[in-house]
Specification:
It is a single chain. Helix content is 10%, strand content 36%. By secondary structure, the protein is mainly beta. The protein has 2 domains: 38 residues, no CATH class; 96 residues, Immunoglobulin-like (Sandwich), CATH 2.60.40.790. The chain is flat, with a radius of gyration of 31 Å.
Length: 174
């Protein structure tokens, strides 16, 4: 006599974990991360005023920049407060100026009964596109009082080629 075995009861479905409600800070952080990723694909870094609210240690610092062209010279100035010349590296190609380096800050305080030590380190990177006519082979860099200055020659803008066109009489019908 054969007996049919009844199937084992299916396990009860696991309760789903309660959904985490996104806060406005989560949304801003996600937007910040997505925009950073998009700019990174173009070789650019974050250059906007806010940082991850929940992880300020991830904030990216980028030096302020001033660039002007005057009397056949291109002048690029970057503010690098607290840095030394040895902390900065400058590379130039035919179409871009790249400034990068390491920023370090260390502070120690020892008073009655306590000792406090704070350190922060961070790599920075700026890629600056050069305008048409810049002559990278003439570039010279100086560093004084926390300001890096790079100066190079620029070609005089070419005068647009013009020619006069004679206005002829209309063609006679045949």
């Amino acid at each position: 006599m054969a007996t049919a075995l009844s199937p084992a009861p299916a396990p009860a479905p696991a309760k789903p974990a309660p959904a985490r409600v996104a806060t406005p800070f989560d949304l801003i952080h996600n937007l910040s991360r997505d925009v950073d990723r998009m700019f990174a694909e173009f070789g650019l870094r974050r250059r906007w005023p806010f940082m991850p609210f929940d992880r300020p240690e991830e904030a990216v610092w980028s030096p302020d920049l001033e660039m002007k062209e005057d009397k056949g010279k291109l002048q690029v100035r970057l503010d690098l407060p607290g840095l030394k010349r040895e902390d900065v590296k400058v590379d130039i190609t035919a179409d871009a100026l790249v400034v990068e380096g390491e920023r370090r800050r260390e502070e120690e305080k020892q008073e009655k009964g306590f000792y406090r030590s704070e350190r922060s380190y961070g790599h920075f990177f700026r890629s600056i596109p050069l305008p048409e006519g810049a002559k990278p082979d003439t570039a010279k860099a100086t560093f004084a009082d926390g300001v890096l200055e790079i100066v190079m020659d620029t070609a005089a803008p070419a005068a647009p080629a013009t020619r006069r066109i004679e206005i002829g009489a209309p063609a006679k019908p045949a």
